[in-house]
Amino acid sequence: MTGTEPRVAEAARAPDLASLFRLDGKTALVVGGYGGIGEVTTELLAQAGAGVAIAGRSFEKAGALAARLRDAGHRTAAGRVDLADRESIE
Fold first, then answer.
1. Please, what is the angle between helix 59-71 and helix 37-47, to 10°?
2. Which of 23, 29, 63, 85 could bridge across to 50 with cysteines, CB 3.0–4.6 Å?
3. 76 pLDDT band (50/70/90 cuts)?
């Protein structure tokens, strides 16, 4: 006996972690959502069931990721915004 058996059994009974983090019917806005950490965040939100609006300085990059996720069956939208440019926010 190593002392880990009860924890292993407890973990086996625990609910699936993904089922605890469902965002069905919710919408997320990810600014800078098409590169690096933002892209991974966008993909995880979509996989969790959220509709995802992807925004950033490059509409083309946001649109390309939105199209890829849409092709995989997710709800997405893309837009251009530069948080340093007040006019692009309004």
1. 30
2. 23
3. very high
Closest listed residue to residue 62, CA positions, set 49, 45, 80, 44: 80
**Cα gap 53→76, rounded to integer Å:** 6
Sign of CA dihedral 64, 51, 73, 35: positive
Predicted local confidence at residue 19, as pLDDT: 72
Phi, psi of 55 (to 5 degrees): -135, 155
| CA dist., res. 66 & res. 43, Å (int) | 10
**What pTM does this model have?**
0.76
Give the pLDDT confidence of 11-55 residue by residue, as tens digits: 556 566 667 789 999 999 999 999 999 999 999 999 999 999 999
C-alpha dihedral (3, 8, 9, 12), degrees to nearest 10: 170
Q: Tell me the residue length of the chain.
A: 90
